[in-house]
């Protein structure tokens, strides 16, 4: 399997949460980017400039529970 590098990886999809749709954030731009990461991915996102906000226990439909870390990165200084 080929290992992908920075030059070949790309973000496939990003959308505004339904509660924020129609508010102009896609046109005006946003000053921050938020995401939920598994604990083992936190160090990767921290290296990219994201900061921890809070932890949340999430239970999936199959009953598996996983601790997710909410993270945020400021896009516009």
Textual characterization of the structure:
Keywords: Transferase. GO terms for molecular function: transferase activity. This protein is mainly β and 77 residues long. Helix content is 13%, strand content 34%. The chain has helices at 25-28, 42-47, and strands at 32-38, 51-59, 65-74. It has a three-stranded antiparallel sheet. Strand 2 (51-59) and strand 3 (65-74) form a beta hairpin. The model has no long low-confidence stretch (mean pLDDT 78).
What is the overall number of helices?
2
State the distance separating the first and last CA atoms.
38 Å
Q: Which residues sit in consecutive blocks of at least 5 with pLDDT less than 50?
A: none
β-strand percent reads 25-35%
Strand segment count? 3
**Element-level helix/strand string:** HEHEE
Main sheet: which strands, in order across? 1-3-2
Which overall shape is indicated by the principal axes computed on the Cα atoms? Answer: flat
Radius of gyration: 15 Å
Structural class: mainly beta
Keywords: Transferase
Organism: Halapricum desulfuricans
GO molecular function: transferase activity
Region (Disordered): 1-29
Keywords:
77 residues, mainly beta, three-stranded antiparallel sheet, 2 helices, 3 strands, flat, transferase activity, transferase, Acetyltransferase (GNAT) family
